[in-house]
Amino acid sequence: MKTAADVMTKHVEDIDRDALVSEAIAKMKDLTVSSLLIKTSGGMATWGFMTETDIIEKVLAKSLDPAEVRVSEIMSRPVITVSPGHSLQECAAMMARAGIRRVLVYDGHNMVGIVSTSDIFGAL
Q1: How many whole angstroms separate alpha carbon 5 and alpha carbon 99?
Q2: DSSP per residue over 42-107, as a string?
Q3: Is 19 helix (H, G, I), strand (E, B) or coil?
Q4: Of 36, 42, 46, 89, which is the most buried if we count CB atoms within 10 A?
Q5: pLDDT at 108
Q6: What is the mean pLDDT of residues 79-107?
Q7: Pairing relationship of beta strands 111-116 and 102-106 according to DSSP bridges
Q8: What is the pLDDT of residues 60-86, one digit of tens each?
Q9: pLDDT value at position 91?
Q10: 102: domain range?
Q11: What is the CATH number of the domain that holds 117?
């Protein structure tokens, strides 16, 4: 049975919570990623996560200017995590219950990866 560690993308890109959405867009394009972890100094409970969908639904669809909106205003939280040993079935069930397409992989000390629905589908 495959686990999160078997299919995860091993590096999670991040951005500061005070960054502008326009900066996040530029970073996502530059790194060719569709999501960013938002780290804060307040501990993991205050971390957030932002995806292309968040930008489209929470900024563009509302006719807001990405150069005037902070990442912290649109990030999703709490961050949903799994351990590297979680099975793909467990990951898929968590995503389905939460209505999300990605979970972060946390080893108890650090974010070590990310698993998306396409990672799970590709492992079938």
Answers
A1: 22
A2: T-GGG-EEEEHHHHHHHTGGGT--TTT-BHHHH-B-SPPEE-TT-BHHHHHHHHHHHT-SEEEEE-
A3: coil
A4: 36
A5: 87
A6: 93
A7: antiparallel
A8: 999 999 999 999 999 988 888 999 999
A9: 96
A10: 4-122
A11: 3.10.580.10
Instruction: Identify the band that residue 44 occupies on the pLDDT scale cut at 50, 70 and 90.
Output: low
Q: What is the spatial distance between Cα 57 and Cα 27, in angstroms, rounded to a whole number? A: 19
**Local structure of residue 110 (DSSP, 8 states):** S
Strands 111-116 and 48-51: unpaired
CA atoms of 13 and 111, how far apart (whole Å): 10
**Which residue type, as a one-letter code, is found at position 105?**
V
Per-chain mean pLDDT for the chain: 92
How many structural domains compose the chain?
1
